[in-house]
Specification:
Two copies of one chain form a homodimer.
Chain A: H1 10-20, E1 23-24, H2 25-35, H3 44-56, E2 60-65, E3 72-77, H4 79-104
Antiparallel strand pairs in A: 1-3, 2-3
The structure holds a DNA duplex (30 and 30 nucleotides).
DNA sequence: TCGCTCTACCTAGTATTGCTATGTATGAAC
DNA sequence: GTTCATACATAGCAATACTAGGTAGAGCGA
């Protein structure tokens, strides 16, 4: 999967996963890989900065939790984040319909 | 429509439109706006550089044609471009399915 | 014990790419 | 003769995903 394709859409994916259930970064990466059947196999350098960005924006909040090995940072969605996710879902729908409309016309 | 969403997907849209029928930049912009029902109302500073990039990459070729007013630069797709378009269509499909799979799991 | 692997986190720097702003040019309309 | 629509172009900006590298704990096999 090309690098640029994801731009602007990553936030929605992260918000959607975390909205369903609070999770830590590594688990989110695994979840994305599994759900997309390998299509989204994102490097850590992509996901961690994005999570930090979303937290700074107030869409997520995090807490540290001790784990079996190293401590984990658990992210959960905020009220603001839930709102933003709904907006981004709608935007994704409009975007995908737009692309289909352009491609469909070119069949 | 947010700026970043389009990243990486613009090439496919341009290739698809030009593959259907050779066209000049301004007409492509109008076509995108119409087909997407206003969702893709792209500024010229987005489209022209993208067309130049695609031509440099050998996916498009252009010729100047005199028009009613100012001369137009007509782009058409190359064999390489047609191949690239098929690939990018498939990639778009995989991407869209991937997003749906992630979002669907979070319903 | 040493190295390897898996989990788990982090960040500096890079590259790509779409957008803003601005400029040029033609012709029609008012 | 100014404005508008058509039509092209580019320099600089901003956003963001990725590369590459680092830290750290725990288990496993030679």
């Amino acid at each position: 999967m090309n690098a640029e394709l994801l731009k602007g859409h990553l936030d929605l994916l992260l918000l959607a996963i975390i909205a369903e259930r609070p999770a830590h970064g590594y688990a989110i990466i695994a979840c994305l890989r599994e759900r997309s059947a390998g299509a989204f196999d994102l490097p850590e350098g992509t996901v961690y900065p994005a999570l930090h960005r979303l937290e700074r924006a107030g869409l997520l909040q995090s807490r540290w939790a001790p784990g079996a090995g190293r401590s984990r940072r658990i992210y959960e969605i905020t009220a603001l984040g839930a709102e933003a996710m709904q907006e981004r879902r709608a935007t994704w729908g409009a975007f995908a319909r737009g692309v289909q409309a352009v491609l469909g016309g070119a069949l």
